[in-house]
């Protein structure tokens, strides 16, 4: 069974203070954004999916494997997680070596690992940096290295934790493209994200978390049609959605292009 | 621009500033010149590596006093020349909030309250005033509820707010912020901008580097556009975001402006496009005759 | 990392400097006067102070940690001390001597005594209070900062290591298992740890700079270090005892 099945899990770091409660959700193939206020429990949730934390109650199945029964390293072939800070992983002297580390760990031969790593760097647009020292790159390029090092492992599921943090316009566009390409290749993409415009432009499905619970889950357009609820959980609507409302339009618009096309047709 | 008897009222004057980090061969700042009046809010925009952070460092004296390298031109902060002053003296004029909140925590204090007081202890503020100022900045940043927590037990977003509170407690006349909302959820970043607005109303001059164009459009008076260390423009958000060549500098205007550009909705008088939702709606509502569909 | 236990007690109310003096005097007395009786008396006093300070239970794991050291001291001295003459008992061929055991016992008392004496200080004194007292007594604020930050950065470092470990495990690195597995996991963990601390240290020193860390003004303090009514008296008594012990050692 492909995808991630989360069966009624709860979790707490310290007893008596539940961080997640009664989460029951299934991810098949739609690219999914996880949004919510700081401290809502998003990072904790994806750490559970990745097997870094184990649920107190309930079970999580990653491609049919119960996370309680496997080590993180064993699950690494199935599910990749891109951490927030690339400095938490980089230790090799060249970008290519760094990217090859994961693939070799999960049993790819050196040659295979090199091929996959070059391919991943190519996809991310930094293959020309392959022989540089990662610490000679800017932080945002180092972030791309950490993404490539997960892509090269070719997991069928990839999770990002706030990938747009500190990225400029071009960086975000590149991320958007990477995620959409992965989706097209059949990879299940999940991402925690604070940038609502990015969510609206990129993800098919959106999950809203608040105080350790999922309060909304559905197609992105539908989720952003619940204006009041979005505000109640300290989020805001994408700017294009706000503009659409201001223009007095009934539908929920997700991107500025949608709005422009809609109004051009009308004219 | 106000000026009187040779004295200028500009809080910040930057003249032909050039700077190159040691062991690099490209100028991080290449001939930047602008002036900021008291109480103004200035946004710095540009793609990554454009020089935003370097400019923030130069305004607070860390360039050239902490970072060596080649320095040319002049920066005046409230009439004091940065190059001949010291970081310590400047720190009491101009405060700086960095993008990484984690390394802004002193690591020697056990509560948020004490953390915010750290700078005040250093500059010898009396105990009564210290307490008053810490309480004020806690309230400003809406973090009274976490004042007894250990700074390192906070989330990135909470830490970012503590970092800002720690700097505004020192009551600088000029506040420089380098991507201060990168880890904040949407409403928390909105709150940060509201605080900035309030501080500017109290007369504090603010310079903020940001990628959130919609926020900058609503909250800043002028925008400084940088590209590869060069100053491309320094003008109102309407003017800067209406530029046709913005894309070439790796910057996109607010979504509202993109829409209006596509639909040809222009302010005829100023020849600019709306940059905020409010401007779009006043244009549509016809409340303001200035805005007219061309 | 900080061992300080927040409690309401008489010992907590005593000012840091007095407790520092106590810790040193109590730790040194059994060396100046090397008798079991002195060591035992001082130890009993420290334990009483710990009990009054409601932190006695916290000292037990610390003593437990040093138990290995203590036991090996006693055994080694009991068997191998050069002036061993009076056999006391034996395990098979190994003979334990009275002199050695007695000396081992003294060493043991001294170690436990040292732990308890400093336990009184550390368990009942907030580290910032302690550092602030020293700064007010003339220690450089920079040194004060370094001491204070080490106490915080060590637990912080272990949080960083945990994150790094997670990041590498996520890339399929096994970090648990045989010795070989762990040795192989060492480099991928230690590299980022060092790099991260270098980067953080540099960034943090810049951030401190703009918060007036090097300001020439006289520093002020948010908290008053609480003063203690009888501080001077207790300090005087402790120092007198100390001088008296030295004189005793020299002249008697
Ligand atoms: N390692 C930890 N130990 C204890 N509490 C934690 C830990 N990590 C997170 N928390 C707490 O769990 C809650 C959810 O945190 P997190 O999952 O990081 O939220 P988000 O990613 O949505 O900002 C917060 O209240 C946070 O303080
Ligand atoms: N500490 C440094 N040493 C050397 N070069 C640096 C340093 N910091 C920044 N630079 C370089 O200076 C230029 C401007 O960078 P920066 O001011 O950080 O831009 P931004 O904040 O807009 O991303 C870039 O080319 C960058 O590589
Ligand atoms: Mg998080
Ligand atoms: Mg920057």
TrEMBL record, chain A:
Keywords: ATP-binding, Cell membrane, Membrane, Nucleotide-binding, Translocase, Transport. The keyword Translocase applies. Its main location: membrane. It comes from the Bacteria. SMART domains: AAA. It is a peripheral membrane protein. Residues 4-236 form the ABC transporter domain. GO terms for molecular function: ATP binding; ATP hydrolysis activity; ATPase-coupled transmembrane transporter activity; cobalt ion transmembrane transporter activity. InterPro entries: AAA+_ATPase, ABC_transporter-like_ATP-bd, ABC_transpr_CbiO/EcfA_su, ECF_ABC_transporter_ATP-bd, P-loop_NTPase. Belongs to the ABC transporter superfamily. This is ABC transporter. It comes from Caldibacillus thermoamylovorans. The lineage of its organism: Bacteria, Bacillati, Bacillota, Bacilli, Bacillales.
TrEMBL record, chain B:
Belongs to the ABC transporter superfamily. InterPro entries: AAA+_ATPase, ABC_transporter-like_ATP-bd, ABC_transporter-like_CS, ABC_transpr_CbiO/EcfA_su, ECF_ABC_transporter_ATP-bd, P-loop_NTPase. Pfam families: ABC_tran (PF00005). It is a peripheral membrane protein. Transmembrane segments: none annotated. GO terms for molecular function: ATP binding; ATP hydrolysis activity; ATPase-coupled transmembrane transporter activity; cobalt ion transmembrane transporter activity. Residues 12-253 form the ABC transporter domain. This is ABC transporter related protein. SUPFAM superfamilies: P-loop containing nucleoside triphosphate hydrolases (SSF52540). The keyword Nucleotide-binding applies. It is found in: Cell membrane. One of its GO terms (cellular component) is ATP-binding cassette (ABC) transporter complex. Keywords: ATP-binding, Cell membrane, Membrane, Nucleotide-binding, Translocase, Transport. Its main location: membrane.
From TrEMBL, chain C:
It comes from the Bacteria. It comes from Caldibacillus thermoamylovorans. Keywords: Membrane, Transmembrane, Transmembrane helix. The keyword Transmembrane applies. It is a multi-pass membrane protein. CDD domains: EcfT. InterPro entries: ABC/ECF_trnsptr_transmembrane. The chain crosses the membrane at residues 20-52, 59-80, 100-123, 143-164, 179-199, 233-251. It is found in: Membrane. The keyword Cell inner membrane does not apply. GO terms for cellular component: plasma membrane. This is Transmembrane component STY3231 of energizing module of queuosine-regulated ECF transporter.
């Amino acid at each position: 069974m492909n995808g991630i099945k989360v069966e009624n899990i709860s979790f707490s770091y310290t007893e008596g203070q539940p961080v997640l409660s009664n989460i029951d959700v299934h991810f098949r193939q739609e690219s999914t954004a996880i949004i919510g206020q700081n401290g809502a429990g998003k990072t904790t949730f994806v750490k559970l999916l990745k097997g870094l934390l184990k649920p107190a109650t309930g079970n999580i199945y990653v491609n049919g494997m119960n996370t309680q029964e496997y080590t993180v390293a064993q699950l690494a072939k199935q599910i990749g997680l891109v951490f927030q800070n690339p400095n938490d992983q980089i230790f090799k002297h060249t970008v290519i070596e760094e990217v090859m580390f994961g693939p070799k760990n999960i049993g790819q031969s050196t040659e295979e690992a090199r091929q996959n790593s070059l391919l991943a760097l190519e996809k991310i647009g930094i293959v020309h940096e392959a022989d540089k020292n990662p610490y000679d790159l800017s932080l945002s390029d180092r972030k791309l290295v950490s993404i490539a090092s997960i892509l090269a492992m070719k997991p069928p599921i990839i999770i990002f934790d706030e990938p747009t943090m500190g990225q400029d316009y071009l960086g975000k566009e590149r991320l958007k493209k990477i995620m959409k390409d992965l989706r097209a290749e059949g990879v299940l993409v999940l991402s925690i994200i604070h940038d609502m415009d990015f969510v609206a432009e990129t993800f098919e499905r959106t999950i809203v978390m608040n105080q350790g619970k999922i309060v909304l889950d559905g197609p992105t357009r539908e989720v952003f049609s619940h204006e009041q609820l979005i505000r109640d959980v300290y989020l805001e609507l994408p700017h294009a959605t706000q503009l659409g409302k201001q223009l007095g339009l009934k539908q929920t618009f997700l991107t500025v292009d949608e709005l422009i096309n809609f109004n051009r047709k009308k004219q | 621009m106000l000026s009187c008897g040779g004295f200028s009222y500009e809080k910040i004057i930057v003249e032909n500033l050039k700077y190159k980090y040691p062991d690099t061969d490209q100028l991080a700042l290449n001939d930047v010149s602008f002036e900021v009046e008291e109480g103004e809010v200035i946004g710095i925009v540009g793609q990554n590596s454009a020089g935003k952070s370097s400019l923030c460092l130069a305004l607070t004296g860390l360039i050239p006093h902490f970072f060596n390298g080649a320095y040319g031109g002049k920066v005046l902060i409230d009439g004091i020349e940065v190059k001949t002053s010291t970081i310590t003296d400047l720190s009491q004029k101009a405060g700086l909030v960095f993008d990484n909140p984690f390394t802004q925590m002193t690591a020697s204090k056990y509560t948020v309250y004490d953390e915010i007081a750290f700078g005040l202890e250093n500059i010898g503020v009396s105990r009564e005033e210290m307490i008053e100022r810490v309480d004020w900045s806690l309230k400003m940043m809406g973090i009274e509820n976490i004042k007894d927590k250990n700074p390192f037990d906070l989330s990135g977003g909470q830490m970012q707010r503590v970092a800002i509170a720690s700097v505004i407690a020192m009551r600088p006349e000029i506040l420089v912020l380098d991507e201060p909302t990168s880890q904040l959820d949407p409403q928390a970043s909105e709150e940060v901008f509201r605080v900035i607005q309030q501080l500017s109303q109290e007369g504090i001059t603010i310079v903020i580097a940001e990628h959130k164009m919609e926020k900058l459009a609503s909250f800043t008076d002028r925008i400084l556009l940088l590209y590869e260390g060069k100053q491309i423009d320094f003008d109102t958000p309407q003017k800067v975001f209406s530029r046709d060549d913005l894309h070439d500098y790796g910057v996109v205007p607010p979504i509202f402006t993109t829409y209006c550009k596509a639909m040809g909705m222009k302010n005829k008088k100023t020849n600019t496009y709306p940059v905020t939702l409010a401007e779009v709606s006043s244009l549509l509502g016809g409340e303001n005759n200035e805005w007219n569909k061309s | 990392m900080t061992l300080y236990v927040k409690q309401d007690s008489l010992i907590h109310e005593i000012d840091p400097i007095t407790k520092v003096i106590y810790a040193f005097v109590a730790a040194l007395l059994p060396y100046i006067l090397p008798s079991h009786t002195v060591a035992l008396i001082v130890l009993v006093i420290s334990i009483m102070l710990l009990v009054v300070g409601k932190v006695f239970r916290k000292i037990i794991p610390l003593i437990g940690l040093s138990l290995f050291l203590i036991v090996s001291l006693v055994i080694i001295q009991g068997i191998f001390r050069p002036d061993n003459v009076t056999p006391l008992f034996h395990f098979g061929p190994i003979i334990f001597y009275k002199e050695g055991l007695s000396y081992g016992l003294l060493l043991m008392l001294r170690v436990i005594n040292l732990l308890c004496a400093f336990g009184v200080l550390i368990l009942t004194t907030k580290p910032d209070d302690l550092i602030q007292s020293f700064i007010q007594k003339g220690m450089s604020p920079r040194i004060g900062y370094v001491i204070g930050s080490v106490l915080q950065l060590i637990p912080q470092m272990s949080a960083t290591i945990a994150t790094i470990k997670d990041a590498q495990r996520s890339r399929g690195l096994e970090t648990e298992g045989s010795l070989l597995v762990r040795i192989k996991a060492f480099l991928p963990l230690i590299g980022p740890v060092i790099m991260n601390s270098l980067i953080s240290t540099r960034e943090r020193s810049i951030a401190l700079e703009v918060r007036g860390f090097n300001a020439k003004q006289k520093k002020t303090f948010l908290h008053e270090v609480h003063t203690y009514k009888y501080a001077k008296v207790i300090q005087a008594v402790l120092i007198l005892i100390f001088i008296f012990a030295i004189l005793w050692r020299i002249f008697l």
